[in-house]
Design a protein that fits this description.
By secondary structure, the protein is α/β, with parallel strands linked by helices. It folds into two domains: 149 residues, Rossmann fold (3-Layer(aba) Sandwich); 182 residues, 2-Layer Sandwich (Dihydrodipicolinate Reductase, domain 2), CATH 3.30.360.10. It is built from twelve helices and 15 strands. The strands form two sheets. A nine-stranded mixed sheet has the order 14-13-12-11-7-10-9-8-15. α5 packs antiparallel against α12.
C-alpha cells in the first residue's frame, strides 16, 4: 500500500453511515494524521457502528451537530444525492470545508450555488470522483495531452450493468427523482462520464433517451445519448441497470493516431499500426472498482489518493483536483440526457 501521511493533523466529520460511508471510513483509517472525530446519520445504530471503529467523540442523528462542532476541520457528505445541496450549504455556511459524494448535486442550479458559496467563503469544495486517481486514467490523460492519439475523434461510455429489484425497493431512496436524481446514468455511470469529460473536454450539444424498461422505478434503468464536445469530437453513451448479461464499465476514446480503453484501473492502448498493449494497473497496484452485478466493490487505492489530495488542498490552501467546477461538467451531461428525453437537442 502507498504510504499516506499528512503534514499536520486534520479532523474529519462524516454525515451518512451507509455502505459508501463505511468505505470512506476505512480509507480514513489508512491515513496518518487524519482522524474521524464525528459522525451523524438518522440511523443512529449505523453511525455508532462506524464510530466504534474510529473512536469518534461525536455520534448523532442530526447532521448539524457535526457541522457545528469546532473541532471538525472538514465534513464528508455521504447521503442520498438529493440531500447533497442542503447539507453542503449548511456546512459551508458554518465554515467547514466539504468533500461531498458524487454527483455534486442533482440539479445544476444547486451545484452552482454550492460552488459559489465555497468560493465566497474561501473554503474547499471537493467531490468524490476517485476514479480520476486511477493509474489508468492518469496515464490516459498523459497520452491524450501529449498528442499520442492524434486528433480526438470520438468517445464512448458504456455501463451496461444489473441491479435487482431489492437494490431499489429496500433502499428507501434509490429509484426516485427527489433523492437519487436519476438512475443508471447519475449513479452507476457517473464515474466514466466524469472520466470522459476530464479526458476529452466539455460537451456542447446532446440528444438523449431514457426509460425505466424493467424496474418499477421513477427514474432510468436504461439510457442512450449522442453528443458533440466543444472541441468538435463526437460522443455516445449507453447505460443500464436492467440487463442480466452485464458487461464491465468501459470508456473508449478514439483519435486519428490511436485509441484507448479504460476499464476501472486497466488501460488498453491501440496504436496506429494495429498493436494492442494492455496495462493492468489493477493487478499491479489493486484498484478495480465497481461491478456489473456487485455494487459493494470499492478501491481503497483510488479513495486513498483522492482523500490525500483533498486534505492536502486544505493544508496547502489550493484547489482539490476534483473541485466543484470539475464535478459540474458530468452533471451537465446527465441533466441534458434527462431533459432531452428523445424530444429535443440540448445545448449545454
Amino acid at each position: 500500500m502507498e504510504s499516506r501521511k499528512l503534514a499536520r493533523n486534520l479532523k474529519a466529520g462524516m454525515i451518512g453511515a451507509g455502505s459508501s460511508a463505511t468505505n470512506i471510513a476505512a480509507t480514513i483509517a489508512t491515513i496518518e494524521n487524519l482522524s474521524l472525530v464525528a459522525i451523524a446519520d438518522k440511523n443512529i445504530d449505523a453511525a455508532k457502528k462506524i464510530a466504534a471503529g474510529h473512536d469518534s467523540k461525536i455520534v448523532s442523528d442530526d447532521y448539524k451537530d457535526v457541522c457545528d462542532d469546532e473541532s471538525v476541520d472538514f465534513v464528508i457528505i455521504s447521503v442520498p444525492h438529493g440531500l447533497h445541496h442542503e447539507i453542503t450549504m449548511y456546512a459551508l455556511k458554518h465554515g467547514k470545508h466539504v468533500l461531498v459524494e458524487k454527483p455534486i448535486a442533482t440539479k445544476i442550479e444547486d451545484a452552482e450555488e454550492m460552488i459559489d458559496t465555497a468560493r465566497k467563503k474561501n473554503l474547499k469544495l471537493g467531490v468524490h470522483f476517485q476514479c480520476r486517481f486511477f493509474d489508468a486514467v492518469q496515464e490516459a490523460k498523459k497520452l491524450i495531452d501529449g498528442g499520442k492519439l492524434g486528433k480526438i475523434l470520438q468517445a464512448n461510455v458504456s455501463v451496461m450493468w444489473y441491479r435487482d429489484d431489492d437494490y431499489y425497493q429496500k433502499s428507501g431512496w434509490r429509484g426516485t427523482w427527489v433523492l437519487e436524481g436519476g438512475g443508471s446514468l447519475i449513479n452507476q455511470a457517473i464515474h466514466p462520464v466524469d472520466e470522459m469529460v476530464h479526458l476529452v473536454g466539455s460537451v456542447k450539444t446532446l440528444f438523449g433517451l431514457w426509460d425505466h424498461a424493467i424496474h418499477d422505478i421513477e427514474v432510468d434503468d436504461l439510457t442512450a445519448a449522442a453528443f458533440q464536445f466543444e472541441n468538435g469530437a463526437f460522443g455516445t453513451l449507453q447505460t443500464s441497470t436492467a440487463t442480466k448479461a452485464a458487461f464491465p464499465a468501459k470508456l473508449t476514446i478514439f483519435g486519428s493516431e490511436g485509441a484507448i480503453q479504460i476499464d476501472g484501473n486497466i488501460l488498453t492502448i491501440h496504436d496506429a499500426d494495429g498493436k494492442e498493449k494492455v496495462i493492468d494497473y489493477a493487478a499491479k497496484h489493486g484498484g478495480q472498482v465497481g461491478s456489473a452485478k456487485d455494487p459493494s466493490k470499492f478501491s481503497l487505492l483510488a479513495h486513498g489518493r483522492m482523500m490525500m489530495d483533498f486534505c492536502n488542498a486544505i493544508i496547502e490552501d489550493r484547489e482539490p483536483v476534483v473541485n466543484g467546477e470539475a464535478a459540474l461538467e458530468s452533471l451537465k451531461v446527465v441533466r441534458a440526457v434527462y431533459e432531452s428525453n428523445g424530444e429535443k437537442i440540448i445545448t449545454l
